[in-house]
């Protein structure tokens, strides 16, 4: 049994401690907003927050999560999250949308620690999140837009 | 909820009326399907598209709560067609946009066929808006007239005195009004007007405006359900061990260790490999790692991609099948003042959509079946699954889900992964719903690539720089030969999806000959966002640029001199050049220059000017200025988004992506070796739309073809070095 706190709710999961958090979220806890893209931490589609910090769920063993609070796209909330999601909607960033949960979780992580990121800061924080539809121009604009709305 | 009429929505109870799948063919698994692709010029005529019947019952449902549900017959893999298609119908209906929803149509080739593909329900060739335009306008207009008639009857007032605005029907004279929801039930009982009056363009309120996407919220809060998110009661997950080389088959397997993995339920052989069935994806993946399979590789492709391309080079020296010809290019070249010769090579490319291929299939208690997937070729997928399962197609219900990208990969003539899912369910006797999941590695190594292609061009110029002759030879594997569509779509050995964009070049080249060789290697190939144009546009647009420089004429002016009979191409070229500041005095910055390309694909016209900085071993794309002519831009913001996205999508294929085979084994297995474009590489993209009243065409694909040649031409302008092969040879770039 592994104890996990996801979006404020504690779950006891009967699973190997080596099982990646990604598959526990998706296949055991039905939190399918967190996506599988590559399984090797190259694409960022599985980005969640562990105690508020962006982490790749595909490379996170559930045995290593401990007491950390896990937040997924379904549970993310607060001023920064609302600003980011609002900016994404205002600028119609999404295309297929599959990567956007991870993009948004990374962007919230960026803005939480850096309320006024430069383009270089955005490159640094977001380069690990692949968008195959190529929505990067709007992701960048939406992060700046969210920063403005938070200022 | 009241309805205009209960439509066939999530399940189609009707039997197939098409009869395209005969019993005998089904038994043999050989599916022969009538299919056409009215792409490009044929579609522009559009006569039969305008003759389509008004079918409001098939395309819209109005609830008592005022919701307007537009039934979308196409897959939305990111193009935004759900929003675009709903916009068309909602405008003619005068619906309140805030009440508009969409729902994916069930499989029904009679109601929901792609009007540009004949009797096929499917999405591709940038046709969603183009083929639906009149169909959805008429459906919306007919539904509007039915609501008006219902109000006129109830209020006992003349139809002509009633107005409709924003989801409300109003009679000013008697000061009465009703929301759509109040009228829906009575409207449903009225006859469907066959020729409803359509709006004049000046009356459109949504078409041509920036209407917000209907899928933005659900795709930013985790609630959008993609195929991979399908969760059916009791479902299991299957992961398949595929052969290491294309064409190999299973001879035996040892599953003892796999069965010991916690969570593994069963192991079954299927024609495409060995499936491990488990309670979740992780267990299935671990089970597959423990599986030992032996393969018969006697019929497998064992060559390396380098060897395949080298063979193409040799093949190109021999005469091919003539796809188009006019004048006498050999004589023209013989008498030329200058002769230029160039070769262009292209690698296999994987689509690498973010959502790996997957499908869920289950058997209902009555022996019918349900499939949940990002279904892109519904008629073929339904027929293929039905043939495997031994039922008629009407016994297989399809549930199209949001797709995490596709770029062509989800529409295979063989319905490959849907067939695999059906085989697993059958082999396992349908004990529970089965979710077939391809890992990223399966998706990357699974074939169906953009073909590797080789072009060789010889062209002559006279003393004034005019083209005296153009000889063009292309070698590549046809997408259609060997598919169910071969009989319909391959004419005299020429597959239009392979040669499009070159054999039909719009440039005024009076002496022109295009020959094609159909290669036959064992690597499965497929359309990849913009299909043949992915390579033909590059070969044509780089070669034209070379001729312009040889003729010492500005590349934009040179192209315009050859496009006198292609005004829409000339139009986007001029617009892009103007917006990019082409020809204006540039701040001279070492290694930085502009390059241009223009191309028509799928009836849409796109020009791009690339602003590039090139140095030793490096290329940085600073800015792309694009101009597009798509006829009426139903949603200009989505048109812009598709062009921005085309740049982001295609850039990595210009700079580095290639699928290589070593002794038949695919080497690139994940995003570390096949790396898509990343944020820090994304150039600024400005998109300018030519105002037009022409019928709308598509924009899902046409932004792709011009990117590579525009960048390559800019690199030449910056460095004097011609990089013709894709991906561009960065290692060979010396810089300034």
TrEMBL record, chain A:
Q: Which SUPFAM superfamilies match?
A: 2Fe-2S ferredoxin-like, CO dehydrogenase ISP C-domain like
Alphabetized UniProt keyword annotations: 2Fe-2S, Iron, Iron-sulfur, Metal-binding, Oxidoreductase
InterPro entries hit by this protein: 2Fe-2S-bd, 2Fe-2S-bd_dom_sf, 2Fe-2S_ferredoxin-like_sf, 2Fe-2S_ferredoxin-type, 2Fe2S_fd_BS, Beta-grasp_dom_sf, Diverse_Oxidoreductases
Gene3D superfamilies, per database record: 3.10.20.30, [2Fe-2S]-binding domain
- Ranges for domain 2Fe-2S ferredoxin-type come to 1-76
Its Gene Ontology molecular function terms?
2 iron, 2 sulfur cluster binding; metal ion binding; oxidoreductase activity
Pfam families in the record: Fer2, Fer2_2
Keyword Iron-sulfur attached: yes
Quote the protein name from its UniProt record: Isoquinoline 1-oxidoreductase subunit alpha
Q: Which organism is it from?
A: Methylobacterium hispanicum
Automatic annotation (TrEMBL), chain B:
The UniProt keyword set, sorted, is:
Membrane, Transmembrane, Transmembrane helix
MF GO annotations: oxidoreductase activity
The signal peptide annotation in the UniProt record is none
Decide whether keyword Membrane is in the record. Answer: yes
Transmembrane stretches, start-end: 20-37
Q: Which residues form the Aldehyde oxidase/xanthine dehydrogenase a/b hammerhead domain?
A: 221-299
Q: Which domain of life is it from?
A: Bacteria
InterPro entries recorded: Ald_Oxase/Xan_DH_a/b, AldOxase/xan_DH_MoCoBD1, AldOxase/xan_DH_MoCoBD2, AldOxase/xan_DH_Mopterin-bd_sf, N-heterocyclic_Hydroxylase, OxRdtase_Mopterin-bd_su_IorB, TAT_signal
List the SMART domains hit by this protein, alphabetically: Ald_Xan_dh_C
Can you name this protein? Answer: Isoquinoline 1-oxidoreductase subunit beta
**What is the species of this protein?**
Methylobacterium hispanicum
Its organism's taxonomic lineage begins at: Bacteria, Pseudomonadati, Pseudomonadota, Alphaproteobacteria, Hyphomicrobiales
């Amino acid at each position: 049994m592994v104890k996990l706190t996801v979006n404020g709710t504690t779950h006891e999961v009967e699973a190997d401690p080596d099982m990646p958090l990604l598959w526990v979220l998706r296949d055991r806890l039905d939190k399918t907003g967190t996506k599988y893209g590559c399984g090797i931490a190259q694409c960022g589609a599985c980005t969640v927050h562990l105690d508020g910090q962006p982490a790749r769920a595909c490379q996170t063993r559930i045995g290593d999560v401990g007491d950390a609070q896990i937040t997924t796209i379904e549970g993310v909330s607060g001023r920064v999250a609302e600003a980011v999601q609002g900016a994404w909607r205002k600028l119609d960033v999404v295309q297929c949308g599959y990567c956007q949960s991870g993009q948004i979780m990374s962007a919230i992580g960026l803005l939480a620690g850096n309320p006024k990121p430069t383009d270089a800061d955005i490159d640094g924080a977001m380069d690990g999140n692949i968008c195959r539809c190529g929505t990067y121009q709007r992701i960048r604009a939406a992060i700046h837009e969210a920063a403005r709305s938070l200022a | 909820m009241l309805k205009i009429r209960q439509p066939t929505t999530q399940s189609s109870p009707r039997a197939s009326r098409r009869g395209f799948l005969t019993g005998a063919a089904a038994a043999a698994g050989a599916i022969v399907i009538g299919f056409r692709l009215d792409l490009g010029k044929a579609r522009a005529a559009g006569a039969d598209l305008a003759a389509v019947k008004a079918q409001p019952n098939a395309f819209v449902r109005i609830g008592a709560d005022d919701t307007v549900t537009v039934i979308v017959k196409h897959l939305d893999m990111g193009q935004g067609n759900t929003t675009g298609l709903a916009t068309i119908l909602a405008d003619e209906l005068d619906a309140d946009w805030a009440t508009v929803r969409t729902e994916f149509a069930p499989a029904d080739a009679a109601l929901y066929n792609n009007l540009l593909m004949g009797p096929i329900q499917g999405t591709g060739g940038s046709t969603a808006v183009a083929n639906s335009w009149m169909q959805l306008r008429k459906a919306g207009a007919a539904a509007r007239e039915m609501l008006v008639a219902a109000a006129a009857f109830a209020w006992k007032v003349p139809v002509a005195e009633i107005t409709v605005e924003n989801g409300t029907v109003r009679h000013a004279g008697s000061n009465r009004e009703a929301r759509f929801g109040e009228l829906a039930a009575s409207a449903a009982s009225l006859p469907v007007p066959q020729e409803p009056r359509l709006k004049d363009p000046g009356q459109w309120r949504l078409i041509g405006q920036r209407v917000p996407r209907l899928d933005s919220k659900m795709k930013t809060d985790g609630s959008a359900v993609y195929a991979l998110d399908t969760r059916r009661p009791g479902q299991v997950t299957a992961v398949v061990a595929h052969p290491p080389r294309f064409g190999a088959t299973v001879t035996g397997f040892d599953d003892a260790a796999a069965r010991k993995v916690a969570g593994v339920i069963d192991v079954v052989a299927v024609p495409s490999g060995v499936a491990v069935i488990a309670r979740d994806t992780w267990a299935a993946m671990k089970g597959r790692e423990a599986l030992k399979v032996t393969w018969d590789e006697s019929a497998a492709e064992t060559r390396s991609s380098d060897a395949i391309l080298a063979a193409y080079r040799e093949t190109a020296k021999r005469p091919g099948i003539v796809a188009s010809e006019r004048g006498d290019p050999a004589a023209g070249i013989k008498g030329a003042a200058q002769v230029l010769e160039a070769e262009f090579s292209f690698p296999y490319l994987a689509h690498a959509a973010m959502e790996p291929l997957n499908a869920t299939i289950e058997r209902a208690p009555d022996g019918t079946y349900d499939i949940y997937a990002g279904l892109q070729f519904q008629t073929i997928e339904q027929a293929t699954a039905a043939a495997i399962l031994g039922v008629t197609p009407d016994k297989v219900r399809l549930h199209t889900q949001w797709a995490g990208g596709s770029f062509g990969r989800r529409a295979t003539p063989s319905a490959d992964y849907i067939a695999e899912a059906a085989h697993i369910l059958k082999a396992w006797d349908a004990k529970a719903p089965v979710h077939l999941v391809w890992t990223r590695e399966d998706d990357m190594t699974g074939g169906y690539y953009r073909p590797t292609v080789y072009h060789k061009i010889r062209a002559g110029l006279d003393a004034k720089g005019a083209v005296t002759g153009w000889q063009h030879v292309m070698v590549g594997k046809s997408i259609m030969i060997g598919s169910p569509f071969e009989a319909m779509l391959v004419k005299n050995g020429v597959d239009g999806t392979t040669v499009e964009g070159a054999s039909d070049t719009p440039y005024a080249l009076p002496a022109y000959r295009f020959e094609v060789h159909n290669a036959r290697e064992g690597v499965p190939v497929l359309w990849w966002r913009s299909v043949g144009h992915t390579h033909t546009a590059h070969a044509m647009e780089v070669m034209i640029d070379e001729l312009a420089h040889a003729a010492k004429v500005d590349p934009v002016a040179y192209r315009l001199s050859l496009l006198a009979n292609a005004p829409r191409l000339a139009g986007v070229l001029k617009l892009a050049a103007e917006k990019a500041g082409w020809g204006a005095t540039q701040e001279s910055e070492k290694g930085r220059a502009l390059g241009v390309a223009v191309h028509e694909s799928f009836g849409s016209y796109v020009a791009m000017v690339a602003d590039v900085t090139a140095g030793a071993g490096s290329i940085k794309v600073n800015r792309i200025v694009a101009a597009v002519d798509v006829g009426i831009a139903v949603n200009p913001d989505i048109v812009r988004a598709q062009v921005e996205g085309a740049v982001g999508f295609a850039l990595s294929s210009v700079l580095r992506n290639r699928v290589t085979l070593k002794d038949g084994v695919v080497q690139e297995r994940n995003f570390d070796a096949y790396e898509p474009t990343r944020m820090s590489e994304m150039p600024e993209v400005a998109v300018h739309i030519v105002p037009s009243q022409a019928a709308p065409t598509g924009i899902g694909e046409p932004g792709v073809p011009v990117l590579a040649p525009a960048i390559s031409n800019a690199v030449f302008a910056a460095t004097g070095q011609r990089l013709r092969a894709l991906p561009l040879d960065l290692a060979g770039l010396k810089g300034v």
